[in-house]
Amino acid sequence: MNASATRAVRLLTRQRLNGTLNARNGRLAQRTCSLFPRPGNITATRTIITASKLEAQPTVAKPPPPKDNETKPQNENSDVKRFSQFDLTGKVFIVTGGAQGLGLEMAEALAEAGAKVYCLDRAQQPDPATWSSALKRVPSAYGGSLHYRKQDVQDTSGLDELIASIATENNRLDGVVAAAGVQQITPAMEYNPNDVARTLAINYTGVFMTATSAARQMHKLRQPGSIVLIASMSGLVANKGLISPVYNSSKAAVIQLARNLAMEWSRKQEDGTGGIRVNCISPGHILTPMVRKNFEEVPGLREKWEAENMMGRLAETREFRGVVQFLASDASSFMTGGNLVVDGGHTAW
């Protein structure tokens, strides 16, 4: 066979071999595609199999994950106010026992949130230095304000008239904080009826009448709102070292009172009345003027109370600012009949 014939035979053999391989590759590709059917609405990666290599359509690389200290971009909206549920701008509140101590601190907190707050107490005028400092701590830019009115909660008719006049003057009343209270450290067998009656008149009857007078005006104005009663952890436990059975009993009564008033007033009625939430705050031992007097009367009492506390210290009045803002505002809109215990863990062990 000459050279030309030899080259022709080799070319024919190579073409037949390539045809056989292409046929096999085609059948293999069909089988591979049949195992993974592709839906009509999904674009899949197309795979081509040849005798020499496997080729795939390149995919788009994913962006790197964000770093730990990066935050997701937020939709900026000038109409959204930070912590808007706590905003009390334009609202009117009354705080009894508001001349000093915990009552004044809570009044400041409400004013700081934008409320117009009336502080009621039995003194003709609050202590000038204390009141002046409180006014300076309420920024006028926030829209809130403090106002003082002389009123003893034992004078229930005068209390009712004053609350009515405040509601009429402002054409609204959004709530009250009933913080007026007294304490008497006396062994039970040494109490007389007058001692008992005086303590209950302020700590229970005064609280009761404050709440009902406010609710009466809120119903009249079709004004829902929040009533906060200041109870005490002393209404839950017998405090070691605090021989004050009537005070402790009165605070237990206040906790139960809140539940009953909440049951009566919380539901919004068809005529627009109701919608008044009623809750309690039960503080632990706080460094108020009343408590400091206890320390003078009972040596070693402060050390004993601090030792009985999980945090090893007593509370400052400022530590209740956020609590009253929460209960007075829409931030607690689904809370009624409750009792917030803020005692540094004193009653938890």
Automatic annotation (TrEMBL):
<dbReference type="InterPro" id="IPR020904">
    <property type="entry name" value="Sc_DH/Rdtase_CS"/>
</dbReference>
<dbReference type="GO" id="GO:0050664">
    <property type="term" value="F:oxidoreductase activity, acting on NAD(P)H, oxygen as acceptor"/>
</dbReference>
<dbReference type="InterPro" id="IPR002347">
    <property type="entry name" value="SDR_fam"/>
</dbReference>
<feature type="domain" description="Ketoreductase">
    <location>
        <begin position="91"/>
        <end position="268"/>
    </location>
</feature>
<dbReference type="GO" id="GO:0016616">
    <property type="term" value="F:oxidoreductase activity, acting on the CH-OH group of donors, NAD or NADP as acceptor"/>
</dbReference>
<dbReference type="Pfam" id="PF13561">
    <property type="entry name" value="adh_short_C2"/>
</dbReference>
<feature type="compositionally biased region" description="Basic and acidic residues">
    <location>
        <begin position="65"/>
        <end position="79"/>
    </location>
</feature>
<comment type="similarity">
    <text>Belongs to the short-chain dehydrogenases/reductases (SDR) family.</text>
</comment>
<keyword id="KW-0521">NADP</keyword>
<dbReference type="InterPro" id="IPR057326">
    <property type="entry name" value="KR_dom"/>
</dbReference>
<keyword id="KW-0560">Oxidoreductase</keyword>
<protein>
    <recommendedName>
        <fullName>Ketoreductase domain-containing protein</fullName>
    </recommendedName>
</protein>
<dbReference type="InterPro" id="IPR036291">
    <property type="entry name" value="NAD(P)-bd_dom_sf"/>
</dbReference>
<feature type="region of interest" description="Disordered">
    <location>
        <begin position="53"/>
        <end position="79"/>
    </location>
</feature>
